[in-house]
Write a structure and sequence with these properties.
This protein has 3 domains: 91 residues, Barwin-like endoglucanases (Beta Barrel); 32 residues, no CATH class; 144 residues, no CATH class. The protein has 279 residues and is of the alpha+beta class. The protein is elongated.
Length: 279
Amino acid sequence: MPKSINQMMRKGSASLNEGSIVIGSDLASALKIKVGDKLVLVDMKSMVTLSSGQRMKQAVVSGLFKSGLQEYDKTVVYMPIKDAQSLFQYDDKVSGYTISINNGKRAEFLAARIEEALGYPHYAITWQEKHRTLFNWLNLQKWPILIIFGMIALVGVVNIVSALTMIVLEKIRSIGTLISMGMDKKTIRRIFLIKGIYIGVMGSLAGLGLALILAAIQIWFKPLSIAEDIYFMSFVPILFDWTMIAIIVLCGFISSILAALWPTHRASSIEPAIALRYE
């Protein structure tokens, strides 16, 4: 039984004693059973070869788990290895091993090494290969998400440009007065550049704070649910990638500087004689 099963338990205990079984909550709902109920497990191979008799074993449901993946919650059960070997007449053998590794990116490399070491007819399948449909769906979603985020970023850049341009137009007479009094144009550029950076930084920090709050709400309360039979999970999972968060904030900061360049140049290029005509 995987160590993570304790985190997925919804009812009962994950401890397995002789004659006990832990099943998925979706399977329990389909069978209309609860913790403490009894199940009769049947080896389907024995149903085909009736001459050897049907192999059955009674077990008591000691716990219910929910992984969030319907494929597991409807089909996977955990029971003591001795009980399983007795039911399927495996003696002291097993049909396979589930290997957990710390670095999931090494799964393909390790699977290849295992197949090379064991040889035919043994084989190894990675978690990516087993859930290829899910990963294909996730890869398909990357481009639409990037396009949407790109459009949102473009709107933010346009807003910064528009805001600074309006400020320049509102302050055009004041700018002309300051220039005519001897203020350096570099100082004018610096003032509006700092203003643009301030808008960008405050917007990035506000967006980051709001995003972290919404992500925390989703992690704790899971208000955003999805169709489990389509997406293989019942809720939208969220993982905090602090490196990616830092890159996004940095990109927002750089974008705010670039967005402020044109209004800044416009402000510093104002001719005092023309600016003083504005009322």
